[in-house]
């Protein structure tokens, strides 16, 4: 399987696994909810909500104890029943806004 990374980085499924491990370390109740799955030919599009409680350090942010939600989208190319390529997008800016918000600021639902 190939993942397409930002310019200058080599595609690797290892980077995807390490990113998920980073989330799981900071948010032990890390969860991914698949909101929609659409299939067209050899492409599968998935709209997700990633959520968890920020209980560990994450990208320079000390634990806030806040419940966070982040939107993600994946488009997979499938051949012979296996994913061969994935294009992944996430609302990282929205995640950072939640982590930087003051303790009294309500967190908006990811897809509202």
Order of helices and strands: EHEEEEH
Number of separate domains: 1
Q: Give the beta-strand count.
A: 5
The portion of residues assigned to helices is 10-25%
Number of helices: 2
Global structural class:
alpha+beta
CATH fold group: Nuclear Transport Factor 2, Chain: A
Low-confidence stretches: 1-11
Radius of gyration: 15 Å
Strand order of the largest sheet: 1-5-4-3-2
Largest sheet: 5 strands, mixed
Q: For the residues shown, what is the average pLDDT? A: 85
Residue fraction in strands:
35-45%
What is the terminal separation in angstroms?
32 Å
CATH class designation: Alpha Beta
Shape: elongated
CATH architecture: Roll
Oligomer: single chain
Pfam families: SnoaL
InterPro entries: Cyclase_SnoaL-like, NTF2-like_dom_sf
Protein name: Ester cyclase
Keywords:
21% helix, five-stranded mixed sheet, disordered N terminus, elongated, 112 residues, Nuclear Transport Factor 2, Chain: A, 5 strands
What does this structure look like?
This protein is of the alpha+beta class. It has a single domain, classed as Nuclear Transport Factor 2, Chain: A, CATH 3.10.450.50. The protein is built from two helices and five strands. The N and C termini lie far apart (32 Å). Residues 1-11 have low confidence and may be disordered.
Task: Walk me through the topology.
Blueprint: E1 2-3, H1 13-26, E2 31-40, E3 43-53, E4 67-79, E5 82-90, H2 92-100
Parallel strand pairs: 1-5
Antiparallel strand pairs: 2-3, 3-4, 4-5
